[in-house]
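Fold sample X.
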Amino acid sequence: MKDIYTKTGDNGMTSLRNGIRVEKDDIRIETNGQIDHLNSLLGIVRANLGHDCPPLLLAIQRELMVVMSHIATPDGQQNAKPLHADELTAQMEQSIDELRAGQPTAFVVPGDSLTASFIHAARTQARTVERRLWTLNKLHPVSSPILVMMNRLSDFLFTLALQKPTQP
């Protein structure tokens, strides 16, 4: 992208991959906006976790960008970017199982620590993304591994948030 502003969206239209124009409130654009928001929240989580950040979070962020590319690919066209959603889902499940050992099963009121609160904010955004993906799937088929990965991501983030100690 050579120009930051193109002025091509000034009248409520934007482009999918390969230049196909759609309205800015098209469900594909809305879904990608929600994924972008989630990715930004995960960046805040990674920054707050610092050296304690599981490498899996960066892999998930990178996969979300691939997912966005797939969503922006018009129906009937192929996207050459490979999905790794199945592998990431398996990694999240393994991590959840490891982190859940000894954790209580209860509802949690976010706010005990800043980092855990950011993780919970990302978790709730993951749920929003999942809902948008299911809405999108009604009109434009979404790969099943993407849908499963998004469901598991909120579980992973919930489990990760429980690992953060409370602030005094």
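Fold sample Y, listed below.
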Amino acid sequence: MKDQILSIAGKPGLYKLVSRGRANLIVETLDDQRKRMPVFATDRVTSLSDIAMYTDAEDVPLMTILTSLRDKEQGKEVSIDYKKASSKVLRDYFAEILPDFDRERVHDSDIKKLFQWYNILVKNGITDFEEEKKEEEKKEEPEK
């Protein structure tokens, strides 16, 4: 799942990978319109599984942060109005999810984008952020 959800630089929202062509990808918006469009090699496309956020120790994968946010919000959308919230409110709320985030390198816009993406995923019924991790663990276990 997480490898098929994409972010495209310069385009708002999230996209689901539908198919691959020779020189492009076909993606579908994760909104009510479900609009399909091609994405070319010149576009900067990033899978959510490749994104991490800065902490004081080491970078934390986005899926881990989304899992913490889901647990805090009990699978519902973010409870604060992140679009209008002050920097202090955003950072205090985010500190409850990721206490040791790097306060200098993580900007307010990064936090807002995380909350926006989380809400998009929840609206689309995508809340199992550690799904593939469990599958990988099963593959690594030796068969009896």
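Sample Y note: Residues 24 and 71 are 36 Å apart (CA to CA).
Also: The first helix runs from residue 62 to 73.
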